[in-house]
Each structure stands twice: as C-alpha cells, then as structure tokens.
Amino acid sequence: MRFLTRPLPALLFASSAVLSLMLAVSAGCTKSADQAGVGGAVGGEALQIAVIPKGTSHEFWKSVHFGARQAAEEVGGVEIIWRGPVVESDTGSQIEVVKNMITRHVDGIVLAPNQKGGLVEAVEEAIAEDIPVVIFDSGLAEGPEIVSYVATDNFKGGQMAADQMAEAIGEKGNVILLRYLAGSESTEQREEGFLEGLQKYPDINVVSSDQFGGDSATEAKETVDQLLQLHGKDLAGIFAVCEPNANGTLEALRNAGVTGDVKLIAFDSSDALIEGLKDGSCSGIVLQDPVEMGYQAVKALVAAIQGEEVEDFISTGEYVATPENMDDPEIQKLLKPEIVK
After folding, report:
1. Share of the chain above pLDDT 70, in %
2. Is 51 in contact with 81 (CB distance < 8 Å)?
3. pTM listed for this prediction
4. Is the predicted pLDDT of residue 264 greater than 90, yes or no?
5. What would the mean pLDDT of 151-172 be, rounded to a whole number?
6. Could you give the angle at the alpha carbon of 214 between the alpha carbons of 211 and 218, nearest 5°?
7. Where residue 265 sits, what CATH number does that domain have?
8. Are residues 148 and 181 in the same domain?
C-alpha cells in the first residue's frame, strides 16, 4: 500500500475511513457460507477449492459436503465451491462443471468422477493449468498425475457384503448381484469384491450378476421387479451396491411381499434402509464414512497446495450395520451422518 507524505484534510480522512468501513462490512456480508478463516490463504486471499461430487441429490453427497466444510473451517482461508450434476449418470454435465472450474482458475479441484474414463481428459486439462486434483469416492482411469485418491476400500466392502449375505441366508441359496452403472469404478470394485467373497461359500449360487439398477430408485425397482419374476421363487438374497439401487430393491421386495424370504444386503444408508434394519426387511448395510471422505479430500488438497507430502491413497474405512449392532453409537453416526441442509 502506498502512503501519501502530506497530511490529508480532516474531513477527507474521515470520509475515507467511513468508506473503508463500508467496504469491509459489505465484503463481510457477501462472504460465502462455504468460506472460513485465513489459515489456508495464499497472499491474503482465500483458497478456492471446487468440490465436485457425482451428483447432488443423494444423502451421501450432502454428507461429503458437510465434511468438506468441516475441513475448510478447520484449516481456515478456504472457500468451498460445491458444484455437481443432479443426476449421477450425467457425465457430460460433470465434465462441464470441471471445465467451468478450470476457466474460473480455482486453486484446486476435489472430484468424484462418475465415469472412470470419461473424466480423464478434463482432469488432465486442469493439471495442465496448474490446478491440482484430488480424486475421491470413485477412482479415475490411469493417466493424470493426481494428488491423492481418498476413498473407501470398495473391493473390501464388497467382500464384507458377501460375508453378511452368507450369514443372512445360512451360507446357501441363490443370490442376485444388482450392478449400478458401467464405468463407475467404486461400484465396480464392490461388485467384484462381492463375487470374489462368495467363492468361499460353495453352496451359494449367483443366478444373476449382469443386470444394472441405474442411478435412481425407480429404475432399480423396475429391474428388481423383473428379476423377481424370473428368480423369485427360489431366491435367497440380493446385494444392491449403492443407495438408490438399494432403496429401489427394498421397495420391490416389499411390494412383492418377500422381505422375509429374500434377504437384502445394501451398500450406503438411507432412512428407508435404516427402517428396513429395524423391521427385518434389510439384513445388513455396508457403510462408508462420507463426512470423513469430504474432510480428508479437502485436507489433502490444501496440504499439497502448501507443499506438504500427501499419501497416494487415503482410506476412510468400511463398516457393516446389522439389526444387532445398529444402535451402537459409532454405527449410528455412520447410519445417519451429518449433512449440509
């Protein structure tokens, strides 16, 4: 700041002080709800971190948002820009969001790619513009030099689902794997982990593993309705690999009146699935920690921007909720994680 060497008239000085105060108050009033503190700032300005989920409508992503905000508040000097497609299968919209953030030249991007190959070019473009990228929740195809990958061990989560399914059906019977969407790395890992985990149970037979439930509960319900027509008479269980698929599956099972006979193992929680644990229509939910995921992803990116070493992979843990343990405090915290409302 340059200072004048001769004194200002008192009135002019007072006017300038008032104007400065007004500008400061104005800046404070327009501050984003996702901006906090000064600790992460560079050159006195807040770091702008774009957090781009697969979608914005499901509870899981709202919890990721909560964790990202927690990290921003803890670090200080970080503004979270939360943007993403409404529908998780809308890869084109997600690419557009990434490109908009590149044009805006944010200080970093935290991204959950909804298609492992479809986002590679956009991420490479960001890195070429010196915008570091942390990938979270679902992996990206090889190529870009990302800062870190913050996620659940989804393959292990699939194996845990297999063990819970085996326990629920007495280690024997016909089961269905309901897939999500082709190209979604996180759910593909769950699917493969489940199939691998069942190999140690020789009396469990997978009668369908090639059907996709899609990105909405409505689409999943329609798929499960058809599968029940084909396999319902001799079916022991269904594994649904994500929240919308599990919600749709539960609805289909209830409508068909087979919740006692066909055991449901879900991945990710919802109010309907929690109620299912209570009334016995859901036999287990494999849980992630979305709050921790958002928190660790933002922390890792800020650390990298500040020149610190960051691990290539940061695991946020895998858990299983059952009717027996669902009231445990730690499980309750994961069943009903905090969300941004």
Report:
1. 87
2. yes
3. 0.82
4. yes
5. 98
6. 110
7. 3.40.50.2300
8. no
Nearest of 257, 248, 259 to residue 282 by alpha carbon: 259
Pair of tokens at residue 171 = 């280690």
Residue 129 lies in a domain: yes
How many domains does the chain divide into?
Answer: 2
**318 token code pair:** 């895998």
Domain span including residue 269: 154-287
Domain assignment of residue 1, yes or no: no
Helix, strand, coil % in the chain, rounded to nearest 5: 45, 20, 35
Single-letter amino acid, residue 14 = A
Residues 259, 135 share a domain: no
Is residue 224 within 8 Å of 246, Cβ to Cβ? no
The C-alpha atoms of residue 194 and residue 144 are separated, in whole angstroms, by 29
Q: For residue 2, tell me if it sits in a domain.
A: no
Rounded to the nearest 10°, the torsion over CA 11, 13, 17, 18 is 20
Cα separations in angstroms, 334 against 53, 249, 328: 19, 21, 10
Classified as helix, coil or strand, 151 is strand
Least Cα distance to 126 among 151, 148, 107 occurs for: 107
